[in-house]
């Protein structure tokens, strides 16, 4: 029992859980591992989709809960949340004493966990390092990579980038995307159409007709999120197409976007949009597979949509530098340009599936490396 390798997953949003789910189950079911979970951030907040019931249903027992999110929806709240989270993650990690801490992506809460784990001399495994994007997220992603010891990247360009950043090549593994693996294994037939039209608020969606998905999150580096989302709202309204619109994440600027959505609903009696806060990972994946187009600034429009060949309209700078396929039309925050791009994408229809982010057996590849990789804490710059 004492020889089990303790693997601690940091989960700070519903999306983190969805994208780590297959890997987490592999680890949890292996007798040579002891699975630990530290759950915090929006993953514990009801309005963003509290995942604790999902974790219990999926058989995860060793779970620590950290309530660190400070209300405010601005950069000050985000910065203070990061500081508080460092303290709380330190306490939780000291209690769990993991051998490996598994982090994913570029979230500010994840940066807090990386800082805590590094100072506690824990081996850190980072998923999705080396990617480029926009706003403060890219800087956070690279900072987490520099604190990490084992890297699981989604594509070869990201691997090369990490090596150029001084990471040891033997510890940088190109494994593909967990997001795409989860998506590929989710059948579209599980979509519960009736349930979706009782979830959230707004128009009833006719699934016999084309519909789009809209996901527009805040940009934290000084952009006018209220003005920008109003351009998108106007574009969707004027296009006349049915839409599922997902509420923004918890980043600075979320209150401005939420306010714009509420005002839109109050000022319009007729619209074809259903506003939804969150769905289960499986229902969201199935919904993506049935959509005609994805609009906004979510990474789903870059990665998941590329694999599905789903037409996407990428708005603004939030994803501006990501490795992207031919399925995307990039536009600025202008309702005319957004509406025209949607029209073009709906007329075009499906694109060929891309393997930019796909690699068979991603979770199994990561699992095998977590099982056998040497543990170390003192990093050396690879020159």
From TrEMBL:
<dbReference type="InterPro" id="IPR020004">
    <property type="entry name" value="UDP-GlcNAc_Epase"/>
</dbReference>
<dbReference type="InterPro" id="IPR029767">
    <property type="entry name" value="WecB-like"/>
</dbReference>
<dbReference type="GO" id="GO:0004553">
    <property type="term" value="F:hydrolase activity, hydrolyzing O-glycosyl compounds"/>
</dbReference>
<dbReference type="Pfam" id="PF02350">
    <property type="entry name" value="Epimerase_2"/>
</dbReference>
<dbReference type="GO" id="GO:0006047">
    <property type="term" value="P:UDP-N-acetylglucosamine metabolic process"/>
</dbReference>
<feature type="domain" description="UDP-N-acetylglucosamine 2-epimerase">
    <location>
        <begin position="27"/>
        <end position="371"/>
    </location>
</feature>
<dbReference type="InterPro" id="IPR003331">
    <property type="entry name" value="UDP_GlcNAc_Epimerase_2_dom"/>
</dbReference>
<protein>
    <submittedName>
        <fullName>UDP-N-acetyl-D-glucosamine 2-epimerase, UDP-hydrolysing</fullName>
    </submittedName>
</protein>
């Amino acid at each position: 029992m004492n020889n089990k390798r303790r693997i601690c997953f940091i989960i700070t949003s519903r999306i983190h859980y969805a994208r780590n789910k297959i890997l987490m189950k592999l680890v949890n079911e292996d007798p040579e591992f002891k699975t630990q979970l530290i759950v915090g951030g929006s993953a514990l907040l009801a309005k963003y989709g509290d995942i604790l019931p999902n974790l219990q249903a999926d058989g995860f027992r060793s779970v620590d809960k950290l309530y660190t999110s400070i209300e405010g929806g601005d950069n000050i709240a985000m910065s203070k949340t990061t500081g508080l989270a460092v303290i709380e993650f330190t306490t939780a990690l000291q209690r769990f004493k993991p051998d490996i801490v598994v982090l994913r992506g570029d979230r500010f809460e994840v940066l807090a966990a990386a800082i805590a784990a590094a100072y506690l001399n824990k081996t850190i495994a980072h998923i999705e390092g080396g990617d480029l994007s926009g706003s403060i997220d890219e800087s956070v992603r690279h900072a987490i990579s520099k604190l990490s010891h084992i890297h699981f990247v989604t594509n070869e360009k990201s691997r090369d980038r990490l090596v150029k950043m001084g990471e040891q090549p033997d510890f940088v593994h190109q494994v593909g995307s967990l997001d795409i693996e989860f998506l590929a294994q989710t059948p579209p037939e599980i979509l519960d159409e009736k349930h979706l039209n009782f979830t959230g608020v707004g128009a009833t969606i006719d699934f016999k007709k084309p519909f789009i998905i809209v996901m527009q999150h805040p940009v934290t580096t000084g952009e006018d999120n209220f003005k920008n989302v109003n351009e998108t709202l106007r574009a969707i309204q004027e296009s006349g197409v049915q839409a599922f619109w997902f509420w923004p994440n918890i980043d600075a600027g979320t209150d401005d976007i939420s306010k714009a959505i509420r005002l839109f609903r109050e000022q319009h009696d007729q619209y074809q949009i259903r506003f939804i806060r969150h769905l289960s990972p499986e229902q969201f994946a199935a919904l993506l597979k049935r959509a005609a187009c994805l609009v906004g600034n979510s990474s789903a429009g870059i990665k998941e949509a590329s694999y599905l060949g789903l037409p996407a309209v990428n708005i603004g700078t939030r994803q501006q530098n990501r490795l992207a396929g031919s399925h995307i039309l990039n536009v600025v925050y202008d309702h005319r340009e957004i509406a025209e791009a949607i029209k073009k994408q709906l007329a075009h229809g499906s694109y060929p599936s891309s393997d930019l982010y796909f690699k068979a057996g991603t979770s199994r590849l990561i699992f095998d490396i977590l099982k056998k990789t040497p543990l170390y804490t003192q990093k050396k710059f690879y020159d």
